[in-house]
Every structure is written in structure tokens, then in C-alpha cells.
Specification:
Blueprint lengths: L2 E11 L8 E8 L2 E6 L5 E7 L4 E4 L1 E3 L7 H4 L4 H4 L3 E6 L14 H7 L16 H10 L5 E4 L1 E2 H9 L8 H16 L4 E5 L10 H13 L3 E5 L7 H15 L3 E3 L12 H13 L4 E5 L4 E2 L9 H4 L3 H8 L2 H13 L8 H5 L6 E5 L11 H7 L4 H12 L4 E5 L3 H9 L3 E3 L21 H16 L5 H8 L1 H7 L15 E4 L29 E6 L2 E5 L2 E2 L12
Parallel strand pairs: 1-4, 1-5, 6-7, 7-8, 9-10, 10-11, 11-12, 12-13, 13-17
Antiparallel strand pairs: 1-2, 2-3, 5-18, 14-16, 15-16, 18-19, 19-20, 20-21
Helix pairs in contact: 5-6, 6-7, 7-8, 8-9, 11-15, 14-15
Length: 548
């Protein structure tokens, strides 16, 4: 009997394909799974007796925003400690490449404070350059990239709120063609954010046809998640059909103000598949989000500097116009802004406000009452006083819809988070990002063990082989001989998401500083132990995975 590099012995094997677990040993050689055999039958240079814990493929997070934060924290602490071995970046139309020199300032503005983080030096221009930078510094997890439509638009025409000229569209197509040839997996759009919100469907179809020629897919944050969600899903499906490529609808839970529950948008997906179109969905399981307040202003204001926004909002006439725009929502804003539109101020809790710290922990409703103000006036004043330093938690999704999506076979699990760490730049000040620490353990804790909606094997399928299939990765996301050894060993009875808090919130928030989960005991990336007895080893075996 040959001696293998590593054996995970005496485990309950969950293969990632939806099959029931079985007892066995798993042997690794040269970074790949070499053998699956009966308990006690394999020999290794290192043997880890997992003592009946579950052994699963590494979790693949199909929708993240780690593009820059993983340059700040290359060990990918918050992701790998929850069992994630692959992040897909470039989502929601946001991308770090390609970069055109004369438009770099506008692209950096799109990334906020991360654009000036340590490790982010913007010394790349092409997608290939950027992927090389990612790889050269070492990675704790694998990364695959989508081309952000916003990055293409900024490169070709800046932040102009109009349709592109034929030359500008040709420029975007050329940059996209180059990026796809350099290994990108597909194209993403964010059709509620600037500059993507200024694009019509025909522009996106023209770009998606480029992606289709390379065998890539189209992922979209659709054009409206609330009142217009069904029209937006229908538009996405039509774009995919016209361009002839697979469609991934991102984080597709209806947000507050939607006239239908999640069954309605899922029905549109089912109908498209019945016609032979490849459409799938992802969703995270958090009901809230913590944006900057400036990000809930109408899109044409968001690309201005904080000082300019504050100056504009000191004018009562501008305030009235902005208020009317928010309520009218003619160009649908992203989900949390629906709470402003519908006046649900009690669901908005101030999280950070450096110049008005007495507001932290209060709902905007309570804060407005204390200031004897109309809530809209209090909201504008917080922006004027704090600029882009004021952040709030918006509780804007019905958990019943999250549960509906979670149970549907066409929906995979994502975090919509990014690589974080409870130390250094990423924790000063800390963002509100429970999904970045606890998304996958939280699903196992809440929806598999404590409030069962899914079997373990189905939850694991949604985290592993299903997203691997969308990415075209046939040798990841499964436990079988020949596959790369991206592996999680977890104790289901001990799994705990320690980062998530529930509405109504109690301050100071119990998840500050951010907390890693419990029960994720070992994580392997290409056969290298990155998490060993729940501690990061410092190993950086991750790779940039390019489309083949």
C-alpha cells in the first residue's frame, strides 16, 4: 500500500453532488484527491483522524466583492475560516480591471476607501496584469474573476449618464474580448448602480455576445429589486436569450417594497429553463445590509465627492428635489433605498457617524424624533455632518423569501461579502459584514441543524458542485479521485456563526470586533492545510483560476 501525502481518516464523506454521506478515509497526493476508501484502509505521511466529522468539498462563494480586500488580507482570513476555498470576484458590475490611465481616478472613486488601502497600488492595467498581481503575492484561497461592466464603461466613457457612442461601445467590446482571452469567467452588471444604471439592454446584449463567443456566462445585479423586480428578471432573461449565453441572477431575494414574494421571480426562471435557457440564481441569507448613507442617494449624486454632496444638501431646494427623486424611484435604486422610499425609518439603524456619535445605535426614526425633525431632514443632516463616514444598517429583506430561495433547487448560496479581518486596515473602522464571516456556517447552523430547511447534502451541493458547474470547473466542488483537494472538515453539532446579529439590534453590537465561526476545524486548499484545528496556518496555496 502506497503512503499518501495526507489522509483524512474516519470521516463522514459528503461528496458535494447531493448524495448521502458515507463513512470513509480520504487520501491526498500532489494536491489532488488520490483515493476514497473504507475507514482505516489508507496510510499517509500525515494522518488526521477527523473522528466522525463531516468531510465536504471546499465552499465556492459565487458572488463576492473581494477584488481589493484580498490584496489587503491575502490569507483571506474571514473567508477560509468559514470553509470558503474559492471567491468569485468582479460582481455587480464592479471590477478592478481593466484600467485606462486617464480614467483611474473615476475607477478608484467607485471603490471608496479600499482604493487607497495598503497593498492596493493600482500598478496593473489589463485583466492579465491584475490577475498576475493577485497570484504573485500569494493567496489563502482561490480566486476567479468576472469582468465588471462598470469598469468597462468607466474605461471607455467615464461616468457619463448616457448611451455609449458606437466607438465607445467598440472600445468596451475590445477590452472585454481581451479580458476574456486572459481568463475571465464572464461579465457582470450592476444595473442599479452608477454607471451601469445608465446602460440600456442593447448595450449589455452587445457585450454579452462577446462573452458568449468565449463560452463565458453573464451574472447580473438586476435593474430593480423591489417594485420592478419581475420586469428586471424578465429583462435579464431576455438579455441572456438574445446573447445566447448562460445567465446567473445575483442575490435575487425581493427587497422591501416588492409586490410579490420570491415565488414570482423564481417562476420566471423556471419558465425560461422550460424553454431551454440556462438560468440559475444565487442568494445570501442575511436580511440586512450596512451601506454608507450616500449610497442610498439617487445615482447621479453618488459619483460626486462627499464635500460636494454635503454642499448640495445644504440647499433646501436640492433637498426637496432629492426627496422627490427617492420617493419616485424612476431609475430604480438598490434594495435598501426602498426603506427611504416607503418611510420605514424604524428599520434603518445608524452604525457609524464620526461627527454625530450620539446617533449611533438609534434608528433614523428615533434620531429624527430626538432632533424634532422630519426623518428625511435628519437623514440629509447626517450626510451633511458626516459626509461619506456615516453608515447605517438597513433591515430590508423578509426572511420568508430567503427561506423560499434557499429551498429552491435552482438557487446556490453566496455571501455577497468580501475578505475581511478583525485587525489592521479592514477593521479600522470595521464594516458591517456578518456575511463575510458567517454566511456558510450560518446556513449549516440555522437551516440544516437548528431550523431544518435543507438536508446537509443539499446545502453542501448548493455551496460546492452547483457553483463549480456554473464556473465550468469539473475538478472542483466534488470529492472524487482526481479532483483538486479543496476540502472542509466540520463538526455540525458545534458549527456556529458568531458574526450575525438580528434585528432589532442591540448596541454595542456583539459582533464587534468581527468574529470567526466555530466548528470549521480544517480547511484544505489544493491539499494544503490552511486551517488546522480552527487556526489559520499562514499557508498561501490559493491560485487564480482562469477560464479554460
Amino acid at each position: 500500500m502506497s503512503v499518501l501525502d495526507l489522509v483524512l481518516a474516519n470521516g463522514r464523506i459528503v461528496d458535494g453532488c447531493g448524495n448521502p454521506w458515507y463513512w470513509g478515509d480520504l487520501g491526498i497526493q500532489g494536491g489532488r484527491i488520490a483515493q476514497l476508501a473504507g475507514v482505516g484502509s489508507l496510510r499517509g505521511r500525515r494522518v488526521i483522524d477527523v473522528q466522525g466529522r463531516y468531510v465536504t468539498p471546499g465552499f465556492i462563494d459565487i458572488h463576492t466583492h473581494s477584488d481589493l480586500s484580498i490584496l489587503v488580507n491575502r490569507p483571506a482570513e474571514s473567508m477560509v475560516r468559514q470553509g470558503v476555498t474559492l471567491n468569485v470576484i468582479g460582481n455587480c458590475g464592479m471590477g478592478a480591471a481593466p484600467v485606462v490611465e486617464q480614467r483611474l481616478t473615476e475607477l478608484r472613486h467607485d471603490w471608496g476607501r479600499l482604493a487607497a488601502a495598503p497593498g492596493v497600488d493600482w500598478n496593473w492595467r489589463s485583466m492579465s496584469d491584475y490577475l498576475d498581481v493577485l497570484q504573485a503575492g500569494g493567496l489563502g484561497i482561490h480566486v476567479a474573476v468576472l469582468v465588471g461592466h462598470g469598469a468597462l464603461r468607466i474605461a471607455a466613457m467615464g461616468l457619463e449618464p448616457r448611451a455609449p457612442s458606437s466607438a465607445e461601445l467598440a472600445c468596451m467590446q475590445s477590452l472585454l474580448r481581451e479580458a476574456m482571452g486572459e481568463g475571465a469567467m464572464g461579465l457582470s452588471t450592476g444595473l442599479v448602480y452608477p454607471p451601469g444604471c445608465f446602460a440600456a439592454a442593447d448595450e449589455i446584449v452587445a457585450l454579452c455576445r462577446v462573452v458568449a463567443a468565449y463560452g463565458g456566462f453573464y451574472a447580473t445585479h438586476i435593474r430593480g429589486e423591489r417594485e420592478t423586480i419581475l420586469e428586471a428578471v424578465a429583462e435579464a432573461i431576455q438579455i441572456g436569450r438574445q446573447a445566447g449565453l448562460p445567465l446567473q441572477i445575483s442575490h435575487n431575494a425581493p427587497k422591501y417594497g416588492a409586490p410579490h414574494d420570491a415565488r414570482a421571480n423564481l417562476a420566471l426562471v423556471e419558465e425560461a429553463r422550460a424553454r431551454g435557457q440556462d438560468v440559475t440564481v444565487d442568494n445570501d441569507t442575511h436580511t440586512d445590509f450596512g451601506p454608507l448613507l450616500v449610497e442610498t442617494l439617487p445615482q447621479h449624486l453618488q459619483e460626486r465627492g462627499a464635500a460636494e454632496i454635503a454642499a448640495l444638501l445644504r440647499d433646501s431646494t436640492v433637498r426637496r428635489q432629492v426627496r422627490e427623486e427617492i420617493v419616485a424611484d424612476r431609475r430604480p435604486a438598490f434594495g435598501p433605498a426602498g426603506l427611504l422610499k416607503h418611510g420605514r425609518w424604524e428599520r434603518i439603524t445608524v452604525l457609524q457617524a464620526p461627527q454625530t456619535p450620539q446617533a449611533v445605535g438609534l434608528s433614523l426614526e428615533t434620531w429624527a424624533q430626538q432632533q424634532d425633525q422630519d426623518p428625511f431632514e435628519a437623514y440629509f443632516d447626517l450626510i451633511v455632518q458626516n459626509g461619506d463616514g456615516v453608515m447605517a444598517i438597513f433591515n430590508y429583506i423578509d426572511e420568508a423569501d430567503i427561506r423560499r430561495l434557499l429551498q429552491h433547487p435552482l438557487v446556490m448560496i453566496c455571501s455577497d461579502g468580501r475578505v475581511e479581518a478583525p485587525y489592521g486596515f479592514l477593521a479600522d473602522p470595521p464594516d458591517y459584514c456578518p456575511c463575510s464571516y458567517g454566511e456558510f456556517p450560518g446556513v449549516l447552523e440555522r437551516y440544516v441543524r437548528d431550523e431544518p430547511l435543507l438536508t446537509l447534502q443539499e446545502a453542501v451541493r448548493k455551496m460546492t458542485s452547483f457553483p463549480a458547474q456554473r464556473l465550468g470547473l469539473t475538478d472542483r466542488g466534488v470529492l472524487r479521485p482526481g479532483a483538486w483537494a479543496d476540502i472542509v472538515v466540520l463538526d455540525l453539532e458545534r458549527v456556529r456563526d458568531r458574526a450575525t446579529v438580528r434585528y432589532p439590534y442591540r448596541f454595542p453590537l456583539e459582533n464587534y470586533p468581527h468574529r470567526y465561526p466555530e466548528g470549521i476545524d480544517y480547511v484544505l486548499v489544493d491539499g494544503v492545510v490552511v486551517v488546522d484545528r480552527a487556526e489559520h496556518t499562514g499557508a498561501l496555496p490559493g491560485r487564480v483560476l482562469r477560464r479554460r
